[in-house]
Amino acid sequence: MLRFLLASFFLIATPAFADTWTTIQPGGDTLCSTGTPYQFHMRKGDPKKLMVFFNGGGACWSGNNCDVKTDPTTYRPYADGEGNDPRTRDGAFALDNPENPFKGWTQIFVPYCTGDIHLGTKDHTYTKADGIQIVVHHRGRINAQSALDHIYQNVSAPETVFVSGGSAGAVSSPYYAAVLANHYPDASIIHFGGGGGGYKIAPQTQIWTDWGVFHDLPDWVDTQKYTPENTTFNALYAMAGDAFPRIRFHQYNNAFDQVQEDFSTMLGASDTLLQPLEANLAEIKSAVPYFRSYIAPGDFHTLLRYTELYTTTSDGVRTVDWVRDVAAGKEVRDVSCGTAEACQ
Q1: CB distance 265 to 307 below 8 Å
Q2: Model confidence over 268-277: pLDDT tens digits?
Q3: What is the pLDDT of residues 62-102, one digit of tens each?
Q4: How are the residues of the chain apportioned to helix, strand and coil, as percentages rounded to the nearest 5?
Q5: Among candidates 313, 123, 133, 161, which has minimal Cα distance to 248?
Q6: Residue 203 in contact with residue 213, Cβ under 8 Å?
Q7: 21 and 43 in contact (C-beta within 8 Å)?
Q8: What are the residue ranges spanned by the domains of the chain?
Q9: Superfamily designation of domain 2-336
Q10: Predicted TM-score of the model (pTM)
Q11: Going by DSSP bridges, is the β-strand pair 249-254/291-296 parallel, antiparallel, or unpaired?
């Protein structure tokens, strides 16, 4: 079952549009987990409307699950596969779809290949149960910063910045919403995380440390308040909202997202999603000035990369219409499929 669920990270869709993407290999200190090169993708459009997407692809935090020879692997270790290429994606990247809320926008697609939810800054040596050592280059934040630097050089004054992520990219997306809010003080900053809101887990102190998440954080982070010992995934919203209360936060999840349920189990939490998810949403809503959420029925995982952006409906609201209003800066209502029975 886990093999099938994790395979959703690698779904391939055939693009139905002309290739308008440019692939950039930044070099420098960027690197994927096993030492292969990093790259990201940009499509130029309206310079006033910027969409930044942080891709997903699992995570790793031990010798066994960081070893790419483990079957099935729990993360994507390479930047050049189909799952890390917007040309193979649907949803927000289906540029020929007239319903696409981001048609005509400048888009940057930030691949993920470091197992550290785009937040790592260090190389770490793990020891497997058999004594074999595995070196993993947790350089997610270094890689992401190379993409952001490219944006800054090419998009000087956007009016709207839509900071989004799927799965692992959804978990770290509030942090990057704050990074972009800091760089673009005059822009409207809209956040959207898809398929990463159900992790009701304690602070992952050892994981934060092994990944180097709290190393060299920007000045806007209150490092007295947020530490490896007390920062949960939810707290990334409060961290960003404390510094930039103008950010409008949004989250999408499926009520029984099987990939999130699997990773929750591996992290020692509940193997059911809906109740922990609802608790997380309530906690975030109480911590930031503006937060809205959408819970869809079923067990699908994430949203913006797939045709489900156009085919999903919950509580009478089409997902694509909700996302379009979010991207336009409109105030939207919370949407939920309701009870556990209704959300099946």
Answers
A1: no
A2: 887 789 999 9
A3: 999 999 998 888 999 999 988 999 999 999 999 899 999 99
A4: 30, 20, 50
A5: 161
A6: no
A7: yes
A8: 2-336
A9: Alpha/Beta hydrolase fold, catalytic domain (3.40.50.1820)
A10: 0.94
A11: parallel
